[in-house]
Amino acid sequence: MSSSTQNQALNAIVFVYRHVFEKDIEDQINSVRARRKRRLPVVLTFKEATNIFDKMSGLYCLMAKLIYGCGLRLQECLSLRIKDVDIEQSIVIVRSGKGDKDRRTVLPESLKDDLLHQISSVREIYEQDRKDNTNGVYLPGALEKKYPNAGKEWIWFWLFPAKTLSIDPRSRIVRRHHQHPAALQRAFKEAVIKAGITKQASVHTLRHSFATHLLEKGYDIRTIQELLGHTNLQTTMIYTHVATKNILGVRSPLDS
Predict the structure, then answer these.
(1) Do the bridges between strand 166-167 and strand 103-106 make them parallel or antiparallel, or are there none, so unpaired?
(2) Residues annotated as part of the active site
């Protein structure tokens, strides 16, 4: 079994004894935690990423470019709200990212016109929902109870809303959700095949490519860490192993 499966089983045993049987058995466990093997991430070249974008169109192309241009995770892109995009300041704010952390990242200048057009299109959907008296969008945490009508405000509306209404599985309320991740994943996979890319690329590969390309351009590793929202610098350092440019300045003895 994989190391993560082994560690999960050990954690489950400790949890049962600690919280169900109310017994502390950590000192009695004669076990060694499995070490997770380090895998290098798949990274696209700039030309490969451009070829993929050329095979995409419309909303999914914009979402893919935003993920690559901002270094977002898939869910972070889908969860963006109108208030999270500051076009004038060229900033995208990621709310409640991995580890429930907020962060700021850069907004590409080349996407500003497309985003303005997207916001204009979304405004029409929002206005129609208000005319139909549709329930407000989902709000994180206890905001929905604290501010019952906030979900109907424009600033909280999704940047990439779904075309149709759906039932919220948590509250069973019929409301408009954001785009489903499978739709973008399907469109991206089709574009990878059409572009003739042989790498095992997924939507998350765009985030890896964002970090690697910044590193190749000479940006500070700490800056990249903040843009990605990594807690540990070692997580960001993995991209030094896949950068095509020799950032360490080491020369092979054969080249001498």
Answers:
(1) unpaired
(2) 73, 98, 204, 207, 230, 239
